[in-house]
Amino acid sequence: MLVPALRSVLFKIDRTEKASALARNALGVLRAFASAFSIKAGEVELGIAPMTGTADSGNLEADLPELLLAVARAAKVADRPVALFADEIQYLKADDLSALIVSDHKIGQQGLPFIVFGAGLPMVAALAGDAKSYAERLFDYPDVGALDQAAAESAIRTPLSREGVAIEDDALALIVEKTQGYPYFLQEWGFHSWNSAVRSPITLVDVGNATHTAVKSLDKSFFRVRFDRLTHGERDYMRAMASLGPGPHRSGDVAEALGIKTTSAAPTRSGLIKKGMLFSPQYGDTAFTVPMFDDFMRRSMPNWKRSAAE
After folding, report:
1. Cβ neighbours, 10 Å, residue 295
2. Going along the chain, which residue ranges are E strands?
3. Contact yes or no for 285/251 (Cβ under 8 A)
4. How far apart are CA 275 and CA 105, in angstroms?
5. Residues whose CB falls within 8 Å of the CB of residue 215, separated by 6 or more in sequence, listed in order
6. Rg of the chain on CA atoms, in Å
C-alpha cells in the first residue's frame, strides 16, 4: 500500500530541481524495496534501476526505515514535508507496526520533515507499546471519541441552517440522545430526518420516523457487515455481553452470562478485540467499539437465551 503513494510523492519531489538527485535516489531505493517484497514491477512502473543493497533485505524492520529515510531526506532538500496517514492501524501485524515505529523514530532523530498519523481503536497505544517499548514516548495519543452535546447539536443544526431549515429543540435533543454523539450516526439521523420532514422546522415526529428508518438502514449495512464477520462462538459472546446492557462489562460477568469460566471465554474475547468488535477501556473490562451494538445483537438474536438453554 505504501509503494504507489511514495512513488507519487517522489515524482512530485523530483520536479524540484534542487532535490531531483535525492528523489531519483529514493526512487531507486523504492524499486529495491518493491523487489524485495515481491511487488510486481508492472504495478510500480518506476522507470529506474533498483538501488541494490538498500532496503532490499526482505526484513521489513530493516528495510522500511531505509526507504522512508530516503524519502524524508529528499523531502527536506525540496522543502516539501511529507505526512503518512494510516487508518484502522490496529489491524497492522505486529511486525508491520514495529517497522513503522522504528522508521518514525529514526526520522525523528534526524529532524526530517516526515510525520506519521495513525488512527484506530483505543488499544492502539497498547499495541504500539507491545511492538516497541519506547513508542509511548514517540507518539501522542489524543482521544477521538463521541462528540459532546454542543458539538453534536452543531453537527445537525449548522448544515440545516445553511439550507434555511430549522429543527425544534426537542427533535434535536432526541437525535443527540439516540446517536450518543457518534459522528457517523449523527450523519445517518440527519440524513433520514431531512428525508422524513416535509417542511421546516424538523419536528419530534420527523425524528421519530427517522429513527425507525435509520436503525433499519444501520441493521442492513453498518451493523450487519460486522455481525457477518463473527463465528458462532463470537456471536454467542457478543450476545451474552449485550444481555448485560451497553457496557463496559467485567469479563467475568460476560463469562457468567455464557455459563462458562472466564479462562474459557478469554480466547473468544481476544479474537473479538483483534477483529475490532470489542476493546478494553481498562484491565478486565470489555466494551463494544461502536454504540448501539448491544441493541443490534438483541434484535439479531432475540431467542438467544432460550437457544443457549436448549
Report:
1. 16
2. 82-86, 114-118, 249-250, 278-279, 285-288
3. yes
4. 28
5. none
6. 25
Instruction: Set out the domains of the chain in order of their start, with CATH numbers.
Output: 2-138 (no CATH), 149-205 (no CATH), 225-309 (1.10.10.10)
**What Cα–Cα distance (Å) separates residue 90 from each residue in 121, 122, 127?**
7, 9, 7
Could you tell me if 238 and 276 are in contact, meaning their C-beta atoms sit under 8 angstroms apart? Answer: no
What residue type is 75 in one-letter code?
Answer: A
pTM recorded for the entire structure: 0.73
- Residues in CB range of 43: below 8 A, 6 or more apart: 3, 4
Contact predicate 64/103, CB 8 Å:
yes
Sheet holding 278-279, edge to edge: 249-250, 285-288, 278-279
Determine how many CB atoms are found less than 10 A away from the CB of residue 284.
13
In sequence order, what are the beta bridge partners of 85? 117
- Cα 143 from Cα 216, distance rounded (Å): 30
3-class secondary structure, 114? strand
> What's the average pLDDT block by block, 10 residues per block, for the chain (310 residues)?
89 89 90 78 58 86 94 94 91 90 93 92 84 84 89 97 96 96 95 95 97 95 93 94 91 92 92 89 87 93 63
User: Within a 13 Å sphere around the CA of 155, how many CA atoms are in the beta-carbon half?
Assistant: 23
Short-list 100, 61, 82, 64, CA closest to 8:
82
Q: What number of other Cβ atoms are within 10 A of residue 290's Cβ?
A: 17
Angle at 175 between CA 171 and CA 178, to 5 degrees: 130
> Which of the 8 DSSP states describes residue 92?
S
CB 164 within 8 A of CB 158: no
Angle, in degrees to the nearest 10, between helices 169-179 and 204-220: 20
In the structure, how many helices (H) and strands (E) does the chain have?
17, 5
> DSSP letter at 248?
-
